[in-house]
Design brief:
Layout: H1 3-15, E1 18-22, H2 32-44, E2 49-52, H3 57-67, E3 74-77, E4 80-83, H4 85-94, H5 96-101
Parallel strand pairs: 1-2
Antiparallel strand pairs: 1-3, 3-4
Helix pairs in contact: 2-4
Length: about 110
């Protein structure tokens, strides 16, 4: 990944308390895993932004390298990589996701 893309990804993760890199947007998810992750975040009441990786192939590949995680979606909370849909689901089921996102506030969607 080039330095410019790395800087962009670092800024998105740093500047947005909860960011979900996904296929589509929170209003129009374009894969089942992304849709499921959005729904779990909504159920917690989390205020989060989304980055549609389908809009930019460099971001789609770059985020995988950035996190060392091979799949999309990818959730970051307070700058920390949390994981993909399966991990978010486990955290949601155990109540950990709710604790993690409580009190964190953002809004909108980002463009990478």
């Amino acid at each position: 990944m080039d330095a410019e893309l790395k800087t962009r990804l670092e800024a998105l993760v740093r500047d947005n308390p909860i960011v979900l890199f996904m296929k589509g947007t929170k209003h129009f998810p374009q894969c089942g895993f992304s849709a499921a992750t959005v729904e779990m975040l909504r159920r917690t009441g989390a205020d989060f932004i989304t980055v549609n990786v389908l809009e930019d192939p460099a971001v789609r590949q770059g985020i995988k390298e950035f996190s060392s995680w091979p799949t999309i979606p990818q959730l970051y909370v307070r700058g920390e990589f949390i994981g993909g849909c399966d991990i978010v689901r486990e955290m949601y089921d155990s109540g950990e996701l709710q604790k993690l996102v409580d009190g964190v506030s953002v809004a909108g969607e980002a463009s990478a």
